[in-house]
Protein backbone atom coordinates (compact mmCIF):
# COMPACT_ATOMS: atom_id res chain seq x y z
CA UNK A 1 0.00 0.00 0.00
CA UNK A 2 2.77 2.46 0.85
CA UNK A 3 4.31 1.88 -2.59
CA UNK A 4 1.03 2.94 -4.16
CA UNK A 5 1.01 6.10 -2.06
CA UNK A 6 4.52 7.05 -3.21
CA UNK A 7 3.59 6.39 -6.82
CA UNK A 8 0.44 8.49 -6.51
CA UNK A 9 2.36 11.36 -4.90
CA UNK A 10 4.87 11.33 -7.75
CA UNK A 11 2.11 11.67 -10.33
CA UNK A 12 0.28 14.27 -8.29
CA UNK A 13 3.38 16.48 -8.24
CA UNK A 14 3.95 16.04 -11.96
CA UNK A 15 0.34 16.81 -12.89
CA UNK A 16 0.19 19.78 -10.55
CA UNK A 17 3.24 21.27 -12.26
CA UNK A 18 1.64 21.04 -15.71
CA UNK A 19 -1.42 22.79 -14.28
CA UNK A 20 -4.18 20.23 -14.81
CA UNK A 21 -7.45 21.02 -13.05
CA UNK A 22 -7.25 19.85 -9.42
CA UNK A 23 -10.54 17.95 -9.59
CA UNK A 24 -9.36 16.03 -12.66
CA UNK A 25 -6.06 15.13 -11.00
CA UNK A 26 -7.81 13.85 -7.86
CA UNK A 27 -10.26 11.72 -9.85
CA UNK A 28 -7.51 10.23 -12.00
CA UNK A 29 -5.36 9.40 -8.97
CA UNK A 30 -8.24 7.72 -7.17
CA UNK A 31 -9.00 5.64 -10.24
CA UNK A 32 -5.36 4.62 -10.59
CA UNK A 33 -5.14 3.68 -6.91
CA UNK A 34 -8.15 1.40 -7.20
CA UNK A 35 -6.80 -0.14 -10.39
CA UNK A 36 -3.41 -0.91 -8.83
CA UNK A 37 -5.01 -2.43 -5.74
CA UNK A 38 -7.36 -4.61 -7.77
CA UNK A 39 -4.46 -5.84 -9.91
CA UNK A 40 -2.50 -6.76 -6.78
CA UNK A 41 -5.45 -8.66 -5.36
CA UNK A 42 -5.89 -10.64 -8.57
CA UNK A 43 -2.17 -11.51 -8.56
CA UNK A 44 -2.41 -12.75 -4.97
CA UNK A 45 -5.24 -15.12 -5.91
CA UNK A 46 -3.13 -16.84 -8.59
UniProtKB/TrEMBL annotation:
Looking at the record's lineage, which domain of life comes first? Answer: Bacteria
State the name under which the record lists this protein: Uncharacterized protein
Q: Which species expresses this protein natively?
A: [Clostridium] nexile
**The organism's taxonomic lineage, starting at the top:** Bacteria, Bacillati, Bacillota, Clostridia, Lachnospirales
Amino acid sequence: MENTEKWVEKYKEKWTRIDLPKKLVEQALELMKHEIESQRKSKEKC
